[in-house]
Amino acid sequence: MEGRRQLREITSGSNGQGWRFFERRPGRHLARFVRDLHGYTEHGLGAVIRKETPVASIPVIFVFGPGFTLHETGSTRPVRVLQRSFAVGLHGKPSLVGSLGNSICLQANLTMSGARRFFGRGLHYMSGEIVDLNHLLPRCSDLIESQLEEAGSWPERFDILEAFLADRIFEQSAGHTIAIEACRLLSSSGGRVGIESIARHLDCSRKHLNNVFKSEIGMSAKAFARLQRFENASVCLREFPSEQLSAIAHDCGYADQAHFNREFRSFAGETPGKFRAREGATGLVAEAVRR
After folding, report:
1. pLDDT single digits (tens) 212-259
2. More exposed terminus of the chain, fewer Cβ within 10 Å: N or C?
């Protein structure tokens, strides 16, 4: 039996104002399908808007308290209110997410294989979209939100979430083998392996690979490779704050600094240097702008 895994907690704030961040690695049975599990709660921070950059996974956010809002650049007026749990499809642009300063949620970042199994269908319908979970899984969504809200502790919430994920993931089909294997190769290489090489490895044409990939995953294989490189680079910028930008660009597979800058502006709306300064070394909470 796998013992209880350690729950990492980071706390910031005082005098009843601040946030708490929780992290626990998924159980071994879920390791191929769930990249990581996070919990987050905040109290008395006031209304804030945070910048979130794209990732090469499918975040599923389970909301069991006050929800979130989506915003356009330069405006504090929300364009959408997210009062319930939701999932975020693959996309290539930053998002502005707001809260009233008292949100509480759990987040599971699913691999492409995990997301394909969890939702039981190809992911093309989610591409570039934020989808209400209760529209996709109405009965399941209501149940998991109630269970998380009623749980007596954060370890119990993580246990409930993992059981829910396992029930969904292991009862659904795995999806198209070509797309899932191509995702695995791109993820394990940090987006550096060539699409032609993957097609040869899978004994199919590049055109067939891309058609299957778009249907199952939600974007082209080349776009996913770019997204994977960007995410790897953004992690390096957070975790190695003194590392030269040119070294990170080289290690993450960019041709040169200009290529690195162009890709970062495309995905994050800012240069790598500005991204690093904004997010800081931990990357746990993005820049907050008071409304």
Report:
1. 999 999 999 999 999 999 999 999 999 999 999 999 999 999 999 999
2. N
Burial pattern 95-112, b for ≥16 Cβ within 10 A else e, equals ebbbbebebbbbbbbbbb
> Hey, what amino acid is at 87?
A
β-pairing verdict for 48-52 and 288-290: antiparallel
Query: Which residue type sits at 64?
Result: F
- Tell whether pTM > 0.70: yes
Rounded to 5°, angle at Cα 111 from 108 and 114: 85
The domain 8-172 having CATH identifier 3.40.50.300: the answer here is no
Contacts of 217 (CB under 8 A, 6+ apart): 90, 112, 122, 123, 124, 179, 183, 224
- How many Å is the maximal CA-CA distance in the chain? 61
